[in-house]
Amino acid sequence: MKSSGNGEKSNTNQKNGKSKINFFLVFLISWIVLVTAFIAWFLLRFNNFAAAYESEYEDSLPYHTAEAITQKFNDHDVDFIVSSMTSKPVVTAFESENVVTEYVESMISGKTFVYVETDSSREDEPEYYIKTDDGILVARVELQEDKSVSLPYGFKAWKQESLEFFTAASYNVDVSAPETYTVYINGVEVTDTYLDGEIVPSELTQYVDPYAVIPGTANYLVKGLYKRPTVTAVDYLGNECECVYDSQNDKYIVGFIKDFEGREELEEFAISFTSTFANYISQDAGNYALDKYFPSGSSALSYIKRNSSRELYTRHGAVSIHNEEIKDVIVYSDEVVYMEIYVEQWMEMYWGSDEPEVIPTDAHVYFVYINDRWLVGGIQY
Predict the structure, then answer these.
(1) CB 207 within 8 A of CB 332
(2) Is 3 helix (H, G, I), strand (E, B) or coil?
(3) Pairing relation of β-strands 357-370 and 336-347?
(4) What per-residue string of b and e applies to 136-162 under the rule 16 or more CB within 10 Å gives b?
(5) Neighbour-count burial of 114, counting CB atoms closer than 10 A to its CB (0-12 exposed, 13-18 middle, 19+ buried)
């Protein structure tokens, strides 16, 4: 009976011990599972957060904005570039605003572009150059924070603050023209405000003084054009005249006109004078044969009469005038015309060949219009 009682007690203790061990294991395993699940969940959430954070951070970097602007250049979006310029290029009165658009289009046409961060770029003020793929800088872009856009995690959004397109108005126009003429650039009159210095008086006035004045030379200088312009001019009568581009000196030259009403009449007078002048020098015309060609009291005529060269001519026979030619004509004004006149004086000699001696005369004469008639103002020797 005694041993039997002890055995029952021992069995009861063993059952209680088993219950306590099972409860602890269940609790322990449950706790481990729970902690493991939480860690897994936390790591998953953290990884998602880290991935989202990194993605949002990457998307918020300012180079994306620079990249988008550069794409506009690669798309050759001229309207975007021109409208985005912070400071529009200065255009002279001789070109329209459209010339800037045309200039930008010529600069970007057929090219591809990349962006690079400038040395002066800062974290809070990003700055980029836009250049061609062969390294030519064409623009500079500055960015600023776009506070109208809210990004996750407090990241900054960026927008264009300024765009500077490197325009270069590289054409200058240098024009030389008679002061009585009017010069036009692209159809716009060039006024005296563009004079490059004072009017240069003509040294040739000495040949017509005191009867007239030969117009001086006006030199115009217009800077800051984007395209090579069209330069034209009108003479003192309002007629279009020639304007020649001197590529060697990069200068436009407007010369005096060559034709005028009454030219044929003056040419006849000029040949008559030159023929008489040649005969006078060879003593084949009288002492007063030239007087009718000059104004009264002409110093030029007085000089001719004082010239002793006519006394040196060898005695000869008959003379005749041949091969008359007007080599050049310059119309300075209604009162002054220059002509270069050529004649040949055929002179019979008392000795030698039966062929006449040919004496050429090439006269450079300035004619002046006085009292409704042309007269010799002076001769350039």
Answers:
(1) no
(2) helix
(3) antiparallel
(4) eebbbbbbbeeeeeeeeeeebbbebee
(5) middle
Rounded to the nearest integer, the mean pLDDT of the chain is: 89
Residue 274 has pLDDT above 70, yes or no: yes
Contacts of 17 (CB under 8 A, 6+ apart): none
- Residue 77 neighbours by CB under 8 Å, 6+ apart: none
Task: Identify the pLDDT of residue 1.
Answer: 44
For 218-230, the pLDDT digits (tens) are 999 999 999 999 9
pLDDT, tens digit, 9 for 90 and up, residues 7-16? 555 555 555 5
Residue 206 — pLDDT band, cuts 50, 70, 90?
very high
Rounded to 5°, the CA angle 34-39-40 comes to 95
Asked if residue 89 has a cis previous peptide bond (ω within 30° of 0), the answer is: no
Rounded (5°) CA angle 266-268-274: 100
Rounded Cα–Cα distance for residues 100 and 114 (Å): 22
DSSP string over 242-280: -EEEETTTTEEEEPPB---TTHHHHHHHHHHHHHHHHHH
Tokens 């939480």 sit on residue? 38
